[in-house]
């Protein structure tokens, strides 16, 4: 069975070949993970945040497809210099538009990138034991998706381990 190549935009292909801000950040203020190793898309986001709640640096590590790497790259570029409240407002749809669109089967890559960003912001405030009034009490769609994929990965991992032991 042959598969047709996905219709990626030139921007996705460029960011896949030359991602911005790729790599672990040793002096990160906070990090967050999103993804599912079963489907192959994993992201770790690193943010360096100053005392005024401005993102000074952002980087990511990725194990995933071109869309995963491109959406993560564009999110890290976009948030540098932003206040956390403004970074929180970034949506996966705006990221998809910025990279020239995503094939429907790759929407989850944009959702994971924004989910990782929002998880990092929420973790930052949790670590500070502070909750700004603009931060929703309930998790957003993107955060829930990131967590659901993690939970599915844990379940799959357990099942695979049990099958190996039999």
CATH topology title: Sufe protein. Chain: A
Percent of residues in helical segments? 40-55%
Radius of gyration: 16 Å
Order of helices and strands: HEEEHHHHH
Low-confidence stretches: none
Largest sheet: 3 strands, antiparallel
Return the average pLDDT rounded to an integer. Answer: 88
Content of β-strand: 15-25%
User: How many distinct folded domains?
Assistant: 1
Protein traits:
single chain; 166 residues; alpha+beta; Sufe protein. Chain: A; three-stranded antiparallel sheet; 3 strands
Can you describe this structure?
- With 166 residues, this protein is of the alpha+beta class.
- It has one domain: Sufe protein. Chain: A, CATH 3.90.1010.
- It is built from 6 helices and 3 strands; from the N terminus they run αβββααααα.
- Helix 4 (92-98) crosses helix 5 (107-128).
- It is globular and about 50 Å long.
- The two termini are 32 Å apart.
Chain-wise SSE layout:
Elements: H1 10-17, E1 30-36, E2 41-49, E3 55-63, H2 66-79, H3 84-88, H4 92-98, H5 107-128, H6 141-165
Antiparallel strand pairs: 1-2, 2-3
Helix pairs in contact: 1-2, 2-5, 4-5, 5-6
In summary, what is this structure?
It contains 6 helices and 3 strands, in the order αβββααααα. With 166 residues, it is an alpha+beta fold. It has a single domain (10-165), classed as Sufe protein. Chain: A (Alpha-Beta Complex), CATH 3.90.1010.10.
């Amino acid at each position: 069975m042959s598969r047709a190549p996905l219709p990626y935009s030139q921007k996705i292909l460029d960011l896949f070949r030359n991602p911005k801000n790729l790599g672990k950040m040793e002096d990160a203020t906070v990090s967050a993970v999103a993804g599912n190793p079963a489907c192959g898309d994993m992201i770790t986001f690193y943010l360096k945040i100053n005392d005024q709640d401005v993102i000074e640096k952002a980087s990511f590590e990725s194990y995933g497809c071109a869309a995963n790497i491109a959406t993560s790259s564009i999110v890290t570029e976009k948030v540098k210099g932003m206040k956390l409240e403004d970074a929180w407002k970034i949506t996966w749809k705006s990221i998809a538009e910025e990279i020239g669109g995503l094939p429907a089967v790759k929407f989850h890559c944009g959702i994971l990138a924004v989910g990782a960003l929002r998880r990092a912001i929420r973790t930052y405030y949790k670590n500070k034991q502070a909750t700004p009034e603009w931060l929703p009490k309930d998790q957003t769609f993107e955060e829930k998706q990131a967590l659901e994929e993690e939970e599915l990965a844990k379940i799959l991992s357990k099942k695979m381990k049990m099958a190996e032991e039999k």
